[in-house]
Amino acid sequence: MGSLKLDHPQEDNSNSSPMEMTSALDPVEFRRQGHMMVDFIADYYQNIDKYPVLSQVDPGYLRKRLPESAPDNPEPIETILQDVQEHIVPGLTHWQSPSFFAYFASNVSIAGFLGEMLSTGFNVVGFNWVSSPAATELESIVMDWLGNLLSLPKSFLFSGNGGGVIHGSTCEAIVCTMAASRDQMLSRIGGDNIGKLVVYGSDQTHSALQKASQIVGINPKNFRAIEATRSTTFALSPESLKLAISSDIEAGLVPLFLCATVGTTATTAVDPLGPLCDVAKHHGMWVHVDAAYAGSACICPEFRHFIDGIEGVDSFSFNAHKWFFTGLDCCCLWVKNPGALISSLSANPEFLRNKPTDSKQVVDYKDWQIALSRRFRAMKLWLVLRSYGVVNLRNFLRSHIKMAKLFEGLVAMDQRFEIVVPRNFSMVCFRVSPWVATINCKLLEAINASGRVFMTHAMVGGMYVIRCAVGVTQTEEKHIAMAWKVVQEHADVILKNHGDDGDANLKLALLDKIA
Amino acid sequence: MGSLKLDHPQEDNSNSSPMEMTSALDPVEFRRQGHMMVDFIADYYQNIDKYPVLSQVDPGYLRKRLPESAPDNPEPIETILQDVQEHIVPGLTHWQSPSFFAYFASNVSIAGFLGEMLSTGFNVVGFNWVSSPAATELESIVMDWLGNLLSLPKSFLFSGNGGGVIHGSTCEAIVCTMAASRDQMLSRIGGDNIGKLVVYGSDQTHSALQKASQIVGINPKNFRAIEATRSTTFALSPESLKLAISSDIEAGLVPLFLCATVGTTATTAVDPLGPLCDVAKHHGMWVHVDAAYAGSACICPEFRHFIDGIEGVDSFSFNAHKWFFTGLDCCCLWVKNPGALISSLSANPEFLRNKPTDSKQVVDYKDWQIALSRRFRAMKLWLVLRSYGVVNLRNFLRSHIKMAKLFEGLVAMDQRFEIVVPRNFSMVCFRVSPWVATINCKLLEAINASGRVFMTHAMVGGMYVIRCAVGVTQTEEKHIAMAWKVVQEHADVILKNHGDDGDANLKLALLDKIA
């Protein structure tokens, strides 16, 4: 690429003629550079399994490599792409690597990528209907499509006076629904009582709940993370919820909001929606369901039962950007009562006034979310649904689940290992004997330092477990087999060393176990 | 494109063999479809001034054209692109049209587009350092670069123990800084006193302030929108702020947060930062500066004075996605005390625990924002800065300002019109005589219905004004001349009709004027 630099001399400013601003979006140049970038990214995907999955750089690596200030003069795209390859790629943890099994995946697809390109290209700001009708209308339509695929009750769809909206993240979805529930409640009990409101989840609920609760002004003392134990496979027990609520009511507090989870982060546990709703609804609480990861699977009839009871809740969200091939960000939220959101989140300054809004015939999504500005995210969801079709999307999800099952089978055959909780979806929780954190942590660190796979851990019921979460688009069975081989190889070494330098480690392990 | 359909038969499911999931990111197919999409978008830019700027569709147009549910089987990209062209494009309001003068622009550029492609392609989720070191480090670096371009005091940069972060929107930036200020204050005055906290801005402040205040649990009764009048060209007067604060303190309330604006939405008014800080700091308040639109201009030395006094504030944000060529979304926020954000927004669940975080040597941006997940937005900012260089970026901004000046000159030459406030940046506020809302509103509606330009309005000091905001990448002087011609032509017609059917309209106008 070096020779191309001749066309873009880097002399000092006085010699270079200033660019015309319009050339910054010149279609001919857009085409040239756009094609170059498509090839760059295609090459990246082609070579992705050559990179260490977990980046191996040290903190501060990049500042040493980049200049201290922005350049005065333009640099050619060829130079920039060389820098991306040399300086950025080594600092990436490769979330699209077929050997990425950490956290939950955030998978991308050709259709998701193209949808993002269209949305970026149009770059419309669809805060209200009039600012770009197609952005609003397509979002309402695909959210109804997706709601139907999930067999959501009609009350969550636009056709049933509910409706769906695309947020950036689960935390945002919870902030908005919790603010709506807070304001509804305060209008009943008086605006000065915010300090009495209580929010509930299990201790397996995602940290987004606590963060949202903190953001909307719930007193941190009134946040309840109710213990979920191995006896319920880490699902929230309705009985425990009932007890917590009773005790709060006795203390003069007001139960506000329950977040139930379908597919917890640590173990993919599923809270029982129906029985939990029975308890919460008795106290007039708002119930939100966070199915960030597992929601996708519920488009398959055989997994739909995991959201049984959904008819009783107020809001439901899942992240299409996790396991539905859209890429970041795309959190799908449905609510039964959009009016509650709108009442808390609407602001109608004069500069946004327009006839369609005044006519009340249109949706203005600015009132369903935190930000005023919003990207045209529905585009990628529409492209994913159309490019693959429901039949393939279901099969994609099933294929991930089948691979997790394969991994589970491999673990089960090795008697040094234990599957810690039953597998619900495409994630396997396991640990190696001795069942102590030190050994399992050491094993995980060794696996990840190899660069061949990336997995992460969780602590549940005092157990340190390793999580193998399948969900990347390009993962195939051979990657599962390889991942298991990496785990076994490192376990061999660690257990051998553990045996060798015996006493000290053993004591540590025993202490760990007693604690 | 029709013939291509033959390769993608749409028969019923039983005949079509299921796709392999991995093909959803097959590099060969990625390349083919990616190139096709680059051409589609390049064509769109090439033809953009053939479309009506403001979409002319009616509410509900799209539901009539699309199927009721997602397809079972895959559809070829060629068909989808045809549908985009036929059904989506007519429903777009073309924000990238050179004749878009509404709201504030959200301009895109080749570099911004390519940066978004890279970020989408890598699709890393950079919630903490370890999850993708390059994403975090590049963000810290470009935020320091940009902070230096704005001559921000060192206390806002990482090198000075402050730091910058990229949010999605100004509202998000205000929610986070306000939550931080709230928690700092509550730790001083006791956690049960949230009901006493008061938030201040002028009545020209963006609605994001009120929304943020509502979200973080400030009692709606404690939100102050202090009147800013024509006498201060709609800037917030420090004297008025002082009065409002005194009266609140007398009532036993606690002043918390001031949002000052550099470049208001209605008229691009600039609040005087220094004097306002003097008042607010006397009461230990947090001062945030919202320079969403005008912040970009402050990289030009001749406009830097608009943020004089910035050394006294706690946080500062501007939207690179408005007037800095990145495309949506890219809100740059700097804070002096990241610890305050982190203390309010951090959640450290076990599944995110890792050695670099424990070592405290790294930035974990999840604790600087609402969401856990985050896109690699720094990439597009880096590409914009490098592809154009500081010299060109300044000239791009100056060229928009010069065009606004040109428009201003044209308006000033026509005695039927009035420039309502002095122009500060690239936006002109004007109205036509008779100075009544009915006439000016009718004029604006006629202009926009023509499809040839799109402008929006504001109400300030009882005046209905039309705003011509220049800021789209491809706008040239010829578009300015054309826009003015459209305004004049419609004014001719409306004023003539107004004269003709005289009495009724005249009375209406006079009534309006007296009111």
UniProtKB/TrEMBL annotation, chains A, B:
Keywords: Decarboxylase, Lyase, Pyridoxal phosphate. This is Uncharacterized protein. GO terms for molecular function: carboxy-lyase activity; pyridoxal phosphate binding. Belongs to the group II decarboxylase family. SUPFAM superfamilies: PLP-dependent transferases (SSF53383). The keyword Oxidoreductase does not apply. It comes from Prunus dulcis. One of its GO terms (cellular component) is cytoplasm. Transmembrane segments: none annotated. Its cofactor is pyridoxal 5'-phosphate. It comes from the Eukaryota. Pfam families: Pyridoxal_deC (PF00282). GO terms for biological process: amino acid metabolic process; carboxylic acid metabolic process. Residues 1-21 are annotated as: Disordered. Residues 1-11 have a biased composition (Basic and acidic residues). The modification N6-(pyridoxal phosphate)lysine is found at residue 322.
